Amino acid sequence: MISITITGEKKVYSVSGNEVLGSLPLMSQEEVEQAIQKASQAQKGWAETELYKRADVLHNWADRLVEKQTQIGEMISKEVGKNRSSAVKEVVRTADLIRYTAEEGCRIHGDTLRGDSFRGGSSSKIAMVEREPLGVVLAISPFNYPVNLAASKIAPALMAGNAVVFKPASQGSLSGQLMVESLLETELPEGTVQCVTGKGSEIGNFLVTHPQINMITFTGSTATGQSISKKAKMIPVVLELGGKDPAIVLNDADLDLAAEQIVSGAFSYSGQRCTAIKRVLVDDLVADALTDKIKKKVEGLSVGAPEDDATVTPLIDTNAANFVQELIDDALQKGATLITGNTRKDNLIYPTLLDHVQPNMKVAWEEPFGPVLPIIRVKNETDFVSLANESDYGLQASIFTADVQKAMDIGAKLHVGSVQFNAKTERGPDHFPFIGAKKSGLGSQGIRRSIESMTQDKLFILNK
Ligand code: NAP
Description:
This protein has about 475 residues and is of the alpha/beta class. The protein contains 14 helices and 24 strands. It binds NADP nicotinamide-adenine-dinucleotide phosphate (NAP).
């Protein structure tokens, strides 16, 4: 039996390190157990609650989030180092997501099947297929969107009639808890959503192997996701994991547009987005011109503190900053050209652009989750596809070209969940399906898909 040994409390500091924002309870095994039991008991009543009442709870929750957008946005900004305006936008976007989930959840119905499609005495049968909740959903979220990526799990789970055990990222837990407090202020029956806190490495195994957890929905790194999927036994698991999204730039592309989209895609929130553009594959013929345009834009990015609304802000912690620095150092040692950047102040890494990156450099393949962008020059069109597909990841890809047919042909050959044409890679709008191929994920998200993933079919068969 896996057990939890570390308990107590841990201070949560702002990303700047100057402010204690609150504390993270390191829950004991008994407390986590109690939370799961409470959720399990509450789920039965919640599953019988009419859909419109579940939807009312969600609408009420969304209203409260909008009312508290500044307070919650402020906490996100300090806790995970996101600039203020993006942090507030995250809260408002989440309210929209919750409202849409409430409405979509009211429209998820089963269907009927007739038996007479088959020979052999089945013509008298009619099957009614209903969607049933799974039970208790374990929702584990990452630090980078502590409100949005938590609510995108909790809201569909609730609309589907499940109870939720929510485990926020330790750095991000205060924002996550504020969001849950707004939910608990609604008419949601007591016990239906439980927030469990503690280090993932300490309470994670207990949670994911608990027999009363009926489904796991996880967003985070590929390493953690893979380990969870190995441990979860005979329950559905949906994973949203890392990425190494390429921007593929053909020689007929609008280079101004490509440069603008690439810089925004690669450097917003300091590159700490799963769908950030994490490498540029550019036709050699236009590589100099594109690099020049990207350089000018990168040098115009604001760098500094989240409260000053800078685009590039300190990374989540020292380990993250060290990792990005190692990738930069490795590339430069192996002969990459530094175009701009490679300046560091504590955990703040200035936006860094590297040209002539080669396949033997780690930055060509690893996910930095930080503000460094490698440019890889490509000599012929087949290399675009092979270099893009050689990655372990398969989240999204962008293709910049004026030729729609060519974009479709290349897009069809890419092993990724989504292909963007003439725009940066990004998640959303939140009702679009969101898929990670290869080591970028398992299953499909997006509001309707998420609700479906949290239900199972049940048949009632009429025999005339
Ligand atoms: P992470 O370190 O994998 O952590 C994610 C969550 O898992 C946190 O709540 C963490 O808790 C928990 N956790 C850690 N070890 C665990 C274990 N053994 N069992 C159960 N849970 C455990 O990821 P992160 O650094 O927060 O997020 C960055 C990564 O997420 C990047 O790779 C990024 O690409 C990916 N991401 C993907 C998407 C997507 O939609 N595809 C979206 C956003 C982010 P603690 O914080 O307490 O350790």
